[in-house]
Write a structure and sequence with these properties.
Blueprint lengths: L5 H12 L4 H5 L1 H15 L27
Length: about 70
């Protein structure tokens, strides 16, 4: 079953749970939002990757500290 709209998803959830009680139906949006949040937190999406485009240069500083000896 392909879910093409939010309405299709709500209907599928309601049918799967076999529950048409008013408070359950009114909270289906909250279930969907919670599921999306959990999925987005678990999946490493490219939009969450940190980009480091800038470079920093320090003048008169050596990259490595040499030990005495």
């Amino acid at each position: 079953m392909a879910l093409k709209t939010l309405s299709d998803m709500k209907t599928a959830i309601q049918q799967y749970c076999q529950n048409s009680e008013a408070s359950f139906v009114s909270n289906i949006d909250n279930f969907i939002i919670s599921a999306e949040d959990k999925i987005f937190a678990a999946v490493d999406l490219p939009s969450k990757w940190k980009s480091e485009d800038s470079k920093m240069t320090v003048v008169d500083q050596s990259e490595y500290q040499l030990a005495d000896g």
